[in-house]
Each structure stands twice: as structure tokens, then as C-alpha cells.
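Quiz preparation item.
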């Protein structure tokens, strides 16, 4: 099996026209950047999607109504502290932090979004954030790297991608950053993702393309089956590319949607490549399904199986674990084992209800990239999920995280 290329962030990606950003250490974490901001010259159209966890960060409680309104000019985020399970004080602290940046920029308080990521249950040291506002804003530039570093927690590397599209004769640019390497599971996956674009697009168009992009990227990755309290994907569009406004349908929306989907897909892949303690990048594809929902459900059952994931870590071709996960997947479609075919790294090891033992034992799992393909033989729909293995290091990282 051919090895795939690991996507690496580069330090020369710059934000689209009209956007500037910065990241720095404000003392929430002992070292490394823990505070960042993205600022636009012009007010932006905003769209976002957030965690479905019923326990939500107080930072989200503050920001979600602003995103729903659809207009903002800046975004502030801290890492090292989730500002979650703090109660009313957490919402007050989020508002205080956002207003501190607003005052520094000379804009209204409701024009600044605020997000957090890190340890749950500790009060946010909002005073440290306020003290750093002059330094944070004076260092604003078009370099995306400091901001990408500011949102990292257990990530080992920053995640940044850029994409361009020709829309209506104008070059439109999108730059996305993300964090996340554990507690990754739909919906949305445990992550923060902030995308800036100079496209001129309506809020309906932005919401529509974001939902479509998230559903086929961030909602199709899993590391450990846990969904966190702070998950957010936010897109800010300032319109400074000068294109005719993109509406809620048509060719221009399709072109923008393709570019946004590319940004989300590449970031989603980077999240799995940087999964906590991971040694494998696993692609699970389910084909021959009567509907997409069943294909997704079965693929996630395999991708989330602790037995499958630990077998992959141990280079153990125990493919019976994969078939067992197919059988217990909670889907309405009734799987017929005699119609199922399974291939691992291109080797067929199950067909007509029988495990092909010799073929299974011959599968080489020593490489970093593993492909699991399941054909249900019952339709034409399919779905692909990206996941990782579970290693000793995953246990160590999460046992010691506090």
C-alpha cells in the first residue's frame, strides 16, 4: 500500500486582505502562546457551528448569540482554560474579556467573539487577559502562525491551511486554523476552528456552505468517541475581495463552497494526523449501503471500536473485530453477513459470511496509513471516516492531563 503524504502547516501563510491576527503568552499556561485574536478592518458576516454537548462552555454561551446575529469584527480566544462549568461568573468573564479587546480596537462589545479551550472547571484568569490587550493588538500582523499556536492544548503542531478561488473574476482567499488532538468525535469533533475569508457572501450562503462542509469533514472524523464542551467552527467573511455578493444558491456559491470544503477537509485530516499518541491514520470506507446514514453509522462503529483501534496499534490483523463492529452498529439497515466483503490494505479477508484466515494473517499493518474497506453488497451509497489508533501514549497523555 502506498504511503500517503502527511499535511504540514507552514509558517508563511498570511491572512486574507483586511484581516490581521496575533498570538502570545498571557500567563494562563506556563509557556507557549495561550491568547490569540483575529481582527478585521471591516465588519464581517459570521456563521458558526457548535458542540451538541448539553454542557457548554460559558464562553460559547456568550458568543453563540452574537454568531446567530451574524455580524462581528474580531475574535478573541484563550487556551489552557476551558471557562466551562464556572456558572454565571464564566459568562461574565467571557464578556469582560471580549469588551477588553473591543475597547482596545475602538469597536462595540458585541462585535467581538470570545472562545476558550483547555482544562474544565477552573475560573478564567480574566485579569491576565485584560493586561495583555495592548501587547496583543500592537503585534497584529497578517501572519497566521502565532494565532494558530495560541489555540493549541495537547496538540503537538499547529494546523493552518489556505485556499484560493476565482469567484466572479475576483480572487477570493480563505485561511483556516484549527486545534484538536483528543476528545474528537462528532458532532462537531472536539476542536476549535476559525476560518477567515475576504469573500463577499450573504449570511445564508455562508451558513449553508459551512454546514455542508462540516458534515462531510469535521463530522466524519473520530479519535476516541468523546465530544467536548467547547467545540466550535466559525467563519468570518469581510467582503474585501470585491466580488459580487455570493447568495444562497448558484455557481458562485458552489465555487466558494468547494473552497471552504477543501479547507475543512485538510484541517480535519491534520486533526487525525496529530491525534494524541497516534501511530496510525486509519481510513474506514463503507460501500454498498442502501443509504448514507447507515454507511456512516457502520463506519463510525468500526472507527470508534476500542478493540479495532488497539489491534491497529499492535499491528494485529485481528479482522474479526472489524466484522463484529459492523454487526453491532446501531443502524436501521439489517446487515446481511453473506453479502459483506472486507478488505484491509487491499487484501480481501472476509466474504460470503466467512473470515479468510490465511489472507487476514498476511495483512501488513506496520505502515502509518491503514485502509479498511467494507462493502455491504446492499446498495449504492457510501461514507468515509478518518480515525486513529489508540496507543499507550494516549492513555499516558490523558491520565496526566490536568
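Solution:
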Amino acid at each position: 500500500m502506498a504511503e500517503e503524504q502527511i499535511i504540514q502547516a507552514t509558517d508563511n501563510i498570511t491572512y486574507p486582505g483586511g484581516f490581521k491576527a496575533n498570538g502570545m503568552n498571557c500567563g494562563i499556561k506556563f509557556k507557549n502562546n495561550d491568547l490569540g485574536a483575529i481582527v478585521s478592518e471591516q465588519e464581517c458576516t459570521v456563521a458558526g457551528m457548535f458542540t451538541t454537548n448539553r454542557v457548554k462552555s460559558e464562553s460559547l454561551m456568550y458568543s453563540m448569540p452574537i454568531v446567530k446575529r451574524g455580524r462581528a469584527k474580531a475574535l478573541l480566544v484563550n487556551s489552557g482554560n476551558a471557562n466551562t462549568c464556572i456558572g454565571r461568573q464564566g459568562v461574565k468573564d467571557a464578556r469582560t474579556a471580549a469588551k477588553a479587546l473591543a475597547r482596545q480596537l475602538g469597536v462595540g462589545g458585541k462585535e467581538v467573539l470570545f472562545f476558550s479551550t483547555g482544562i474544565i472547571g477552573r475560573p478564567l484568569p480574566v485579569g491576565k487577559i485584560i493586561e495583555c490587550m495592548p501587547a496583543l493588538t500592537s503585534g497584529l500582523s497578517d501572519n497566521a502562525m502565532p494565532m494558530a499556536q495560541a489555540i493549541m492544548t495537547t496538540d503537538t503542531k499547529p494546523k493552518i491551511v489556505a485556499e484560493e478561488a476565482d469567484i466572479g473574476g475576483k480572487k477570493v482567499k480563505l485561511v483556516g486554523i484549527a486545534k484538536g488532538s483528543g476528545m474528537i468525535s462528532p458532532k462537531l469533533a472536539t476542536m476549535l476552528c476559525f476560518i477567515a475569508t475576504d469573500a463577499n457572501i450573504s449570511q445564508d450562503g455562508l451558513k449553508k456552505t459551512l454546514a455542508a462542509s462540516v458534515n462531510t469533514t469535521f463530522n466524519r472524523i473520530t479519535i476516541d468517541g468523546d465530544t467536548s464542551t467547547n467545540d466550535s467552527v466559525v467563519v468570518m467573511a469581510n467582503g474585501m475581495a470585491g466580488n459580487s455578493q455570493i447568495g444562497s444558491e448558484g455557481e458562485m456559491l458552489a465555487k466558494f463552497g468547494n473552497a471552504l470544503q477543501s479547507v475543512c477537509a485538510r484541517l480535519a485530516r491534520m486533526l487525525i494526523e496529530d491525534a494524541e499518541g497516534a501511530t496510525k491514520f486509519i481510513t474506514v470506507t463503507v460501500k454498498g449501503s442502501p443509504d448514507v446514514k447507515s454507511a456512516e453509522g457502520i463506519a463510525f462503529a468500526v472507527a470508534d471500536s476500542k478493540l479495532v483501534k488497539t489491534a491497529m496499534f499492535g499491528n494485529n490483523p485481528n479482522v474479526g473485530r472489524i466484522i463484529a463492529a459492523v454487526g453491532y452498529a446501531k443502524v436501521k439497515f439489517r446487515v446481511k453477513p453473506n453479502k459483506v466483503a472486507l478488505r484491509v490494505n487491499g487484501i480481501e479477508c472476509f466474504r460470503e459470511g466467512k473470515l479468510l484466515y490465511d489472507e487476514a494473517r498476511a495483512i501488513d499493518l506496520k505502515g502509518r496509513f491503514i485502509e479498511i474497506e467494507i462493502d455491504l453488497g446492499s446498495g449504492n451509497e457510501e461514507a468515509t471516516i478518518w480515525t486513529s489508533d489508540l496507543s499507550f501514549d494516549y492513555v499516558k497523555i490523558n491520565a496526566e492531563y490536568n
